[in-house]
Structures are given as structure tokens and as C-alpha cells.
């Protein structure tokens, strides 16, 4: 048996080539936490939390580092066999309320470690491969209608299957004009969605959605605040465009309420929101039982952050039926294919391959990722400290 003897966290800041704009938010750099879990036999598993934000997850670099170093490592991880992931996840849920991004970061590093101990890629631990590569959509930062439409055209030419718009660049009318301009550019057959990230009121959502219903959007993601399940159900009954839940759909009890109240036509999953790979598989099973389609994403994150998602999205049969916009590394590096990313500029030395709108998980044990140790040092977040906890 292996035994966990050391847990290390590193605060890392990765600048974005191009800012990502959302309501009240302009992201220029990704503050994330890289986690290393080391065993007594010298084996190491690692993970990256990806973007942290007060409004999406309510977790920050410091809170993730503190939760892992002060609670999860000393009370759960140290001395434990890292292969007992289900047991560790259950204990994390018992001893730590919420904090799913911190829990997911731990769950990811354990899967990497277990894959390395058993000599298999993580997708083999998750049921094996159902498809070779996950088809991706392109996320369009909010902007002037013509600019957003031009970017959608470039993404379509590369091979992306879905175009997801973000709101909040200018006025409400700008958002409405953007939807129509992008639809005109990508054509009626393209899969087109918009994500309001919970920033509309019921009244505003009704006003806007009625004006964009004619653009034939395939779905609207999280029009209302995460807590307003009743409002989502009312809205869904009042408009034509399907309504999907992202921020509302975190824990399984959230999914149950959404299902019971018929508050969404489908769901959106990110592993950091669901709390890791173990909890995400339960989440996907619940969605499947309810017949709710699932779209899959990742945080804006490095090649390491994206890897757990890259492995699960090719392994989980329900996840592979929906579309995907797990393109965090491409958003960081401002490109639509991984071949254009300069060597050594990411937390991962070998970013999973993105090509022609498809993403392939890395082969090799665990996530198949090599950590860029030099990058962790050169991009350490200013004025913030990592922690090390050991037996
Ligand atoms: Mg969303």
C-alpha cells in the first residue's frame, strides 16, 4: 500500500493573451492553485484548480490553499492510501461544507496519482474510452457585435461545432444585436448559445429572450441568479428558447430541485463546480436518469487544469452526447489550436491536443501531464505563499 506523506500547494498566476469579458468582470490573468500530493514510495500526483472567482465558485487562491493545508491534508490525506478516492471524497464532504473547487483539486491529484500507481490513463479509471476526442465549442468573449461575429466565423472555419456568447459588453441592445449578428454569420445550422451567468433579473431576462427567440438559439445558460430555481421554471414556461442551469446546478440536491420543479431543459457541468471526478460521475448519472442533456466545460485553466475534464468527457457516455466547451488552455493562450501554443508557456509542459475543434486527452499514466516546474517558480502569484504539510 502507498501512503500520502506530503501535500504541497503553489499559487500561480497565468496571464491571458486576450482579456475575457463578462458582466462586471474583465479577466486578464488566471490565479490558480497547483497541488502536489506525494506518497512514501516517491510517487506524485498533481492538479491545477484553474480560474478562481468570488462570483462563480466563491473560492479564491487563498481559500483553496487554506482549506487544503489546514483541513483536508492534515485531517484526511496524510497517512491515507491515495487509491481510496471514494473514501477520501466522502470524508471531504463530511468535514468540509461547500468549497467544491478545493475538493475537486484534491480529487484530481488523487486520480493522477492512482493512474500513475496503476500505470493507466485516468480515462481508464473512469470506465474506459467511449470516443477518441470530444467535440468542442468556442466561447466568445462579450464585445461589439461585428467583432464577436468575426471571431465566430474564424472558430467555425477551424471546425468548432458550437458558439457560445457571453453578455455584458455594453447595453442590453448591444447583447441583442450581438446574438443576431453571430447567428447571421455562423448560419442557421450552427449550434448557438448564450450564457448570462445569472446576471439577469426575471424581468430583464424575459425582455431580452423574447427579442432573441427569433435567432433560434439552441439554449440560454443560467439567465437568473443561481438560487432562483422557481424563477427559472417560470421563465422556461414563458419563452421558446431552452433554458440550461449552470451556477444553479452544483450539488446533487440542487439537481434534484431543478428536476422536481422542471426548472431547466438541460444542465451544464464543470468539474470544479461538481467537486471533482467522483462527484461529477454521480452528477452525470442523475442528469441521465432525468433525461436532461449535459453540456460540459472547464474553468479558464492550464493544460493541467483541463486534463481531468479531457479524460472524463471521452469516458462518460452521457457526457459525450452533449457538446463541450472545455477550451480553457486555448482561452489562456489566445489561439484555437494547441499547435500554436509556444513551448514552456503553460503550467503543463504537454497541453492536451486541440485540433480542428476536437480535444484529445493525453496518453500515459494518470493525466499524462508533465509539470512545468520552471513556470511555477517564474509565475508564482506576487505576495502569496504556497504551503507544505507533511507527516
Ligand atoms: Mg456558464
Automatic annotation (TrEMBL):
List residues of the Mandelate racemase/muconate lactonizing enzyme C-terminal domain.
145-242
Q: Which GO terms describe its molecular function?
A: metal ion binding
One GO term (biological process): amino acid catabolic process
Pfam families per UniProt: MR_MLE_C (PF13378), MR_MLE_N (PF02746)
Gene3D superfamilies membership: Enolase-like C-terminal domain, Enolase-like, N-terminal domain
Instruction: Output the InterPro entries linked to this UniProt entry.
Output: DgoD-like (IPR034593), Enolase-like_C_sf (IPR036849), Enolase-like_N (IPR029017), Enolase_C-like (IPR029065), Mandel_Rmase/mucon_lact_enz_CS (IPR018110), Mandelate_racemase_C (IPR013342), Mandelate_racemase_N_dom (IPR013341), Muconate_cycloisomerase_anti (IPR034613)
Q: Which domain of life is it from?
A: Bacteria
- SUPFAM superfamilies under this entry? Enolase C-terminal domain-like (SSF51604), Enolase N-terminal domain-like (SSF54826)
Keyword field: Metal-binding
According to its UniProt record, which protein family does this protein belong to? Answer: Belongs to the mandelate racemase/muconate lactonizing enzyme family.
Name the chain's protein. Answer: Mandelate racemase
Which organism's genome codes for this protein?
Answer: Malikia granosa
